[in-house]
Amino acid sequence: MSVLLQPLSDPLLTQKGVTLSVLREDLLHPGIPGNKWRKMKYNLQAAQEQGCKTLVTFGGAFSNHIAAVAAAGQEFGFATIGYIRGEETLPLNPTLQFATNCGMQLRYLSRSDYRLRNEPHFQAEILKIAPKPYLLPEGGTNPLAVKGCTEIVTELTERWDVLCVAAGTGGTLAGIIAGALGKGHILGFPALKGGEFLQKDVTDLVQAYSGQTYQNWELQTGYHFGGYAKHKSELLTFIQDFHAQHGILLDPVYTGKMLYGVFDLIKQDYFLEGTRLIAVHTGGQQGWVGYAQRYGLDWPKL
After folding, report:
1. What is the pLDDT of residue 295?
2. Beta strands in 206-262 (DSSP E)
């Protein structure tokens, strides 16, 4: 897998004496970009090896994961079933319409039932009605996903001091920590309010995968902009300006918040002069159409 590292040119970086590059994981695969491809790579292999026919998973109505699983099913010959949090709303939003166009069956769960998604008895019931099922958790995070995400680091050939990545369920961050083997410093930027809980979740994921506990990482929990899939005007302005200056479209749920945080920390002299930073672009641009529709935005023009 080729690695595309895009160095950024910005007066702030020059002023502070640091370098920042964006790792363009969003360009890995047209339908299954970024961390979704990393998370699904070994899960898809396992599903094929086990003779499974149907990928079953969970997600919200605007979920990047739902879109990616639907695309993977279409490309690799699996039927797909997506259990969506909340009631059906017609017409379908762009994410769910894309999933349907890829052949995914959508089934809706009340919020109370959705909270049972990780309970073994609930999973057993829904898997009974799926032909030769392979279950992928919400967000795609499991040990095989962590394995795939270690390759974000192991494929890097450029020298770096700090790796920065957005965090949802913590699987990508855990994979990067495990792949780094204690090297450098890793910053995770939770996309949701109250992201401190990820400290334990990520530690547990790394421990389960590698049997190791690393101390070279931390969470930056102050850049959620009000909560998951929420924003403030300064975030959208930052994303627009970043796109205009660097030609990279960030998403408003994950990577936009992460890179806003990275630049804010640079302004605060958080990093020593000479620090080589890499920010991982985990994809998510598919969500822009629905996000813009939901909030009445006239940008970006996709």
Report:
1. 75
2. 217-219
**Whether 67 contacts 286, CB under 8 Å:** yes
Q: Range with the lowest mean pLDDT among 103-107, 190-194, 282-286? A: 282-286
pTM: 0.93
Structural domain that includes position 194 = 5-32+142-295
CA–CA distance, 166 with 292 (Å, rounded to integer): 21
- pLDDT tens digit sequence for 119-146: 999 999 999 989 999 999 999 999 999 9
Which residue, 95, 110, 140, sits at the end of a domain? 140
Instruction: Say how far apart CA 13 and CA 199 lie, in whole Å.
Output: 29
- Give the tokens for residue 274: 């000479």
Would you report the helix, strand and coil content of the chain in percent, each value rounded to 5?
45, 15, 40
Asked whether the beta carbons of 101 and 75 are under 8 A apart, the reply is no
Q: Are residues 113 and 234 in the same domain?
A: no
Shared domain for 252 and 212, answered yes or no, is: yes
| Burial class, 267, CB count within 10 angstroms (exposed 0-12 / middle 13-18 / buried 19+) | exposed
Q: Which residues contact 215 (CB under 8 A, 6 or more apart)?
A: 182
282 contacts 249 by C-beta, under 8 angstroms: no
Q: For the stretch 43-82, what's the b/e string if a residue is b when 16 or more beta carbons lie within 10 angstroms of its beta carbon?
A: bbeebeeeebebbbbbbbbbbbbbbbbbbbbbeeebbbbb
Rounded distance, CA 167 to CA 175, Å? 11
Tokens at residue 36, please? 């979704």
